[in-house]
Amino acid sequence: MASKNLVSKEEEFKSEFKRRVKDEAKMLYRKTLDEVSDRHKFVCVAYAVKDIVIDQWIATQKAYDKADGRTLYYLSMEFLMGRALGNMIINLSSRNEIKEAIEELGLDLNVIEDQEPDAALGNGGLGRLAACFLDSLATLNYPAYGCGIRYKYGMFQQKIEDGFQKEIPEDWLRHINPLEIKREEYACEVRFGGHVNIEYRDGRNFFVQEGYQAVMAVPYDMPIVGYGNNVVNTLRIWDAEPVVHFNLEEFDKGAYMAAVEQENLAKTITEVLYPNDNHYAGKELRLKQQYFFVSASLQTAIKKYLKNHDDIKKLHEKVVFQMNDTHPTLTVAELMRLLMDEYYLGWDDAWEVTTKCVAYTNHTIMSEALEKWPIELFSRLLPRCYQIIEEINRRFCQEIEQKYPGNHEKVAKMAIIYDGQVKMAHLAICAGYSVNGVAKLHTEILKKQELKDFYEMMPEKFNNKTNGITQRRFLLHANPLLADWVTNKVGDDWITDLPKIKGIEIYADDKKAQAEFMNIKYQNKLRLAKYIKQHNGIEVDPRSIFDVQVKRLHEYKRQLLNILHVMYLYNQIKDHPEMEFYPRTFIFGAKAAAGYKIAKLTIKLINSVADVINNDASINGKIKVVFIENYRVSNAEIIFAASDVSEQISTASKEASGTGNMKFMLNGALTLGTMDGANVEIVEEVGAENAFIFGMSSDEVISYENNGGYDPMEIFNSDMDIRRVLMQLINGFYSPQNPELFRPIYNSLLTKEETGVADRYFILKDFRSYAEAQKKVEEAYRNEEGWAKSAILNVANVGKFTSDRTIEEYVDDIWHLQKVEVKMD
Ligand code: NTF
């Protein structure tokens, strides 16, 4: 009887869902479902799914209000969400019924999912980490908001034309976005510029900003569905709209121009994501964006708190702001301003609250990524915040003085304002109650090198939180074949408890399991080969080794090392056609920042090398080189699943953590990498015998750097193979029409012309060691059983790298949140 009830309940759910989808087609498009386009079908299905989500969303917010625990506000300029629909469906408890209903409607879920544009509101690792964190927070029942910017144009679309990158604006909102809700009721004003007046009343000074320009910040909420727990959290992203409250009579007084300026400000502020990864451009508009979303997020967080509490001095008991890198560091000044100017706390009380509410994550040691703003620009744009930072700085310098009397060098090095600049990292560390790095090695480098002075003065603030990734998107959704295989072997606990995946370890030596595993990899390689054929027109051999480097293009990530090695291999094969060589497909995917010349030239080089090698019939397809256009979250899911070799070859010490490395591991690719970032911990988990490690250590790199670099000319002079490859950069071998084309790359390796340092990223220095490691990869792959074993062991030992673990560590050490259960009728 009970089971019959259950069945009929499921049937009821499905028919209700199907009815909804059809109704949407009717209401939105005046058509029947089979008459509308695929994209419209996506919209109809998305609305039907949203209908289920909304009930849980409401229930979640009610449960949170009732529990009255602490809420996390994860402040980030970037959330690289990718597509939402497919992920939402797999996370919902009713996933099976929804999938069946969609099938019964005669729709293909894959085709539907493909209609959704990626929400590309981020550059790379930092933004994708924020997205994984939101998934984990919801899955782990923690009250949390993501707070960010609703860029009209997200990360640009990359087109490859004649081998060169072209940037096309990514107009992701051109069509309706069914998965968001505009929340006009939470709109608030954000003010820029003008000057600060002091008014004396009631026995104290009040600071009022006058002559400012204002915009309305208007939030859009996107649901973040937890896995099977009824929790729906919120990603709140802010759009800017003009404040229209000028009256016509004042036009002649110049108010008209002011009004037009305000309108322009609103239009430009959320227009576009800055496409720089690990690089700070220092643009005024960027600072405006930062203040804009920080101020709006803080204003609403405080208002929400005061709805149910009356003592603003206890804000920290219910609220924590995590600053994702220094980009939202204005949180410190803006919170002080709101507490003092709007809620009338004195300095000491405001400081006490602020320093208990804010925490900071550092994501890079790359000096060109450090944010520092000229005080001229800063004080003009944010006069009151600047005043406050001056006072914070004055007090901080006093403290340094006290701790290190007479040590002026310390003050000079640690001050927040110095040399005419506001140093955002210094402000974040001074005010934050926690400072964390994103992998063990990275945190150690912060403590011993980059932030040494700060660590010495306040060691208690420093801690490590090794990054993680969500297995829900990057295995369950991205690789259903492997996900099912794992579930068949060890049950499905791994979906919310990744260390359980360790259970597959006992199959590492099992011949049958190895064959199944390798067959799944093969199926996924077929899927990627099909994608490559469709998008690149290149035929690749799914039996070849898929050797993959996908990530942002940056010199420190050393895509150049990879492609120079391909050039070297090609020379070898041409010289020794009889040489044994296991067929290899080198796959690249990378966007270069629009203004990053040498990075863009590296893309051209990869494509030029691909052209020559792929069209040389004499090598019998032993090497293929593929550059996948427009690498992004949605095609990444296909790529990881199909990879054999994971290239993680950054110059040691430069990659703070990396997270792609973890996604490859989760999908059974073997790491070929340096001892950098989280690679170190990956090797710790899986064992050095199941990875290919090469190159200098971070200590060696740092000690060379402290001594002004090394001399690449010695290598150029003594290593004929390397010299030959480098000469091919400038003799037209890969660019017959323009032999000078790649000269800047050649120069960057051998002269100080480009950056003041020759081969700043030690590419030639690590080349031989890399080539050796690559040889070992080939040998290992020839032994199919051995390879399968290593691949299975990679998956089995990936448990540590779930973002669920990372989030639990943040909760235990920094955020102190309480889990909230959400029950549905
Ligand atoms: C990036 N940092 C690092 O370069 C990656 O190694 C790391 O995995 C991610 O952060 C996430 O922690 C940045 O993008 C930034 F902004 F700090 F430069």
From TrEMBL:
Q: Which UniProt keywords apply?
A: Carbohydrate metabolism, Glycosyltransferase, Pyridoxal phosphate, Transferase
Give EC number(s), comma-separated.
2.4.1.1
Instruction: Give the enzyme's main class according to its UniProt record, as a single word.
Output: transferase
Family, according to the entry, reads as follows: Belongs to the glycogen phosphorylase family.
Looking up PANTHER family in the UniProt record yields:
GLYCOGEN PHOSPHORYLASE (PTHR11468), GLYCOGEN PHOSPHORYLASE, LIVER FORM (PTHR11468:SF3)
Cited Gene3D superfamilies: Glycogen Phosphorylase B (3.40.50.2000)
Reactions the enzyme catalyzes = [(1->4)-alpha-D-glucosyl](n) + phosphate = [(1->4)-alpha-D-glucosyl](n-1) + alpha-D-glucose 1-phosphate
Does the record's keyword annotation contain Repressor? no
Q: Which cofactor does it need?
A: pyridoxal 5'-phosphate
Keyword Zinc in record? no
Function, as annotated: Phosphorylase is an important allosteric enzyme in carbohydrate metabolism. Enzymes from different sources differ in their regulatory mechanisms and in their natural substrates. However, all known phosphorylases share catalytic and structural properties. Allosteric enzyme that catalyzes the rate-limiting step in glycogen catabolism, the phosphorolytic cleavage of glycogen to produce glucose-1-phosphate, and plays a central role in maintaining cellular and organismal glucose homeostasis.
Q: What is this protein called?
A: Alpha-1,4 glucan phosphorylase
Q: Upper taxonomic classification of the species?
A: Bacteria, Bacillati, Bacillota, Clostridia, Eubacteriales
